[in-house]
């Protein structure tokens, strides 16, 4: 399932870019925090799947 790993990591990086952009635009802190949490969750899930910890 390497395709899912790649998608999770790419979505996480996309969301991380959104966090940077939203913070720079002065969006509400709640939106930035939620986007950051989603980014971290996607990145961690993709990395855990690559490591074989979570199948």
UniProtKB/TrEMBL annotation:
Organism the protein comes from: Streptomyces clavifer
Alphabetized UniProt keyword annotations: Membrane, Transmembrane, Transmembrane helix
Superkingdom, natural source: Bacteria
Membrane-crossing segments per the record: 31-50
Stated name of the protein: Amidotransferase
